[in-house]
Amino acid sequence: MRLSRAFLPTLKETPAEAQIASHRLMLRAGMVRQTSAGIYAWLPLGWRVLQKVEQIVREEQDAAGAQEILMPTIQTADLWRQSGRYDAYGPEMLRLKDRHEREMLFGPTNEEMVTDLFKGYAKSYRDLPRNLYHIQWKFRDEVRPRFGVMRGREFLMKDAYSFDLDCTGAQKSYRQMFVAYLRTFARMGLKAIPMQADTGPIGGNLSHEFIILAETGESQVYLHKDLLEFDVLSRPVDYDGDLSPIVDFWTSRYAATDEKHDEAAWAQVPGESQVSARGIEVGHIFYFGTKYSAAMGLSVNGPEGKPVVPEMGSYGIGVSRLVGAIIEANHDEAGIRWPDAVAPFKVAVLNLKKGDSATDALSERLYAAFAPDAIYDDREDRAGVKFADADLMGYPWQVVIGPRGAAAGKVELKRRATGEREELSVEDAITRIKGA
Amino acid sequence: MRLSRAFLPTLKETPAEAQIASHRLMLRAGMVRQTSAGIYAWLPLGWRVLQKVEQIVREEQDAAGAQEILMPTIQTADLWRQSGRYDAYGPEMLRLKDRHEREMLFGPTNEEMVTDLFKGYAKSYRDLPRNLYHIQWKFRDEVRPRFGVMRGREFLMKDAYSFDLDCTGAQKSYRQMFVAYLRTFARMGLKAIPMQADTGPIGGNLSHEFIILAETGESQVYLHKDLLEFDVLSRPVDYDGDLSPIVDFWTSRYAATDEKHDEAAWAQVPGESQVSARGIEVGHIFYFGTKYSAAMGLSVNGPEGKPVVPEMGSYGIGVSRLVGAIIEANHDEAGIRWPDAVAPFKVAVLNLKKGDSATDALSERLYAAFAPDAIYDDREDRAGVKFADADLMGYPWQVVIGPRGAAAGKVELKRRATGEREELSVEDAITRIKGA
């Protein structure tokens, strides 16, 4: 993308309403703009990141055997009356009436709808297990939306729902999502730690939150250092195999949020292994048995010919929230430092002297070499502005082309994460970035 | 995807409420399920098609220089009061109030919001031209939703909005979208004909509908045969160049819907070139000048230092509607006949004797060769059921593996579009399909 033609509006001033780093940086870098309280439009830079995050989530759900569907945003109140949650949900549910005065709502989650959908087709134990997920916009009418996309009202969530014949099967599904979540966050360059959680209004008896560590995190967490050092992506996962060893590794070490913190258990962790840090919740998984299947009348013919009520779980990832959380974990004074896998563009080509035929030609050549995962700063602007914008927008690599370098066939390469700069031949710069 | 584990629920009976072919076939093939009147959940098979259609739309918008953003579904009533459309829109607009009693609505379209968004950033004529698009769910509260996804209430639309300095620029943007639309529909295997249209409630003075031809189409259309014979994809397009010759070709031949049909002009078309057919609207483009920019207070500093109110156009494609329209144009008694580019899977591997070690091994080998764009019918079911389901779901290629063929290293290949069948060696079958 050429910056001279792009819709990438940066802000010089920090908007007063933005209290946290990700909110400030997303506004300043022109990633999003608020259109109503807690409701955001995603501009091209932000939209690219959101799509990359979404795609990683999708690939890991697919790899774990979940199947993608798409449920609508608008649901009938009747569905929620069946589960008893219509009255229980409170003012966070956005309720509305259609032109025929039928009571509807903008879905805050989909347990009821997916159970009803599944009920329409599952007749036999042979139709189990299944895990269905979708990535769809939800609405929760927070009384005081804040922190930008971290706590918006309209937000993008991946929610998966598993259906199993029995508790053993449901626990296997739970472990599959547990492991898929570890991989999902690791691929985004995040350290995400599963921590035992209360099940809250969803109900059930087994639940983990996935918390990423960031200095600016919303809550205090306590964990064993082993968990930080484990390399999640170092070995392939067989989702049909026994995942207990992986889950056991994570659940046998101490990890707790403030709410669940247990001083006595914490004291058992050797001092040099105790890590206390700030954390941000980015995912939450639940096993809740037959709570919804029983309420909604879902049952299948079991292997012995008797009806069986499937055991269910649900598994959420805050996709739009993750964009903010990644920034909270990856920024400095100058701006965002995107992990490579979720950067809006991998490379920024900075032409320091637009209009000079040698720098123009070399810049075009480099831009072409990295396209389409590159942005070309071809604006007629000062070098300082270009450096500042590239740092703010946080592209992992910057290739800087000035007239002196262009004459000598050299460019400067900057790695945003470390700040390292190096002068290289054009060929070496291309090789270095493409190989990274 | 293995059918034995997939969530691909077919129906044996045709649902009584489905009046048109695409609606019947989408329900029978398990592509969608209605969750409320005119509101659908997309099941895995339908969701794959929707994603492929969406991706083609996206690629052609990007190629034409439009930039993708994502605006939210929920908008404030205030925005629509500025343009005067809040009261004008009528009961098709889904209106609601949030917990603070603020008037909101589920967006049926986005002229107001995008103009307000653009106003926040565009200061100078150098910030023009820009074309911003998004692919987002919309809601129009139809009084009698019907025809499945062809006329649903919650539907996926691609809407683009162009901003130009003057009328000449706006016409250039209009032509870019005109050509991008021709290519978009052609890539989906559709014959789409632009026809002059009324501008309706959007306003403005130039507008074309894009109509695809299908025997089961909703309206009568009249056109010159040249338009059907033109091969849109045969040459590359330079969107920065002059697109007038392409647009002139299409607009100088007769093409009209029933409403605009002009018997006198039609009589000028030589009889052998007259084609009258049934059509379905799948896209609509508008040039409406300063209608929204003036109403919403958008202006930029012009080249001479005076304020200029940008000229705008908007450009819509019914993405979810297209899935139905493609089926209307591509089906027979047995089911859907997907064009290759939008098929949910390119190949179906039919194992006629599950449990036989030779057919199982050969089926697995073929499935692996075509994955991930293949579905494997590994169910323990009769051959007749497998043939019928594959025809119904409409995969472009079927590879049939029976025990006799497996012993001889042969498979049967069926091309869904033509019904042609051929016995081939395994290697030839793989080569044939991969090369297609």
Automatic annotation (TrEMBL), chains A, B:
Cellular component GO terms held in the UniProt record: cytosol
Reaction catalysed by this enzyme: tRNA(Pro) + L-proline + ATP = L-prolyl-tRNA(Pro) + AMP + diphosphate
Root EC class: ligase
Gene Ontology terms for molecular function: ATP binding; proline-tRNA ligase activity
Pfam families in the record: HGTP_anticodon, tRNA-synt_2b
Keywords assigned: Aminoacyl-tRNA synthetase, ATP-binding, Cytoplasm, Ligase, Nucleotide-binding, Protein biosynthesis
CDD domains in UniProt: ProRS_anticodon_short, ProRS_core_prok
InterPro entries according to UniProt: aa-tRNA-synt_IIb (IPR002314), aa-tRNA-synth_II (IPR006195), aa-tRNA-synth_II/BPL/LPL (IPR045864), Anticodon-bd (IPR004154), Anticodon-bd_dom_sf (IPR036621), Pro-tRNA-ligase_IIa (IPR002316), Pro-tRNA-synth_IIa_bac-type (IPR004500), Pro-tRNA_synthetase (IPR050062)
EC number: 6.1.1.15
Record bears the keyword Transport: no
Residue span, Aminoacyl-transfer RNA synthetases class-II family profile domain: 38-339
Any one GO BP annotation for this protein: prolyl-tRNA aminoacylation
Gene3D superfamilies, per the entry: Anticodon-binding domain, Bira Bifunctional Protein, Domain 2
Localization of this protein: Cytoplasm
Role summary: Catalyzes the attachment of proline to tRNA(Pro) in a two-step reaction: proline is first activated by ATP to form Pro-AMP and then transferred to the acceptor end of tRNA(Pro).
Family: Belongs to the class-II aminoacyl-tRNA synthetase family. ProS type 2 subfamily.
Assembly notes: Homodimer.
Name assigned to this protein: Proline--tRNA ligase
Species name: Siccirubricoccus deserti
Name of the gene this protein is made from: proS
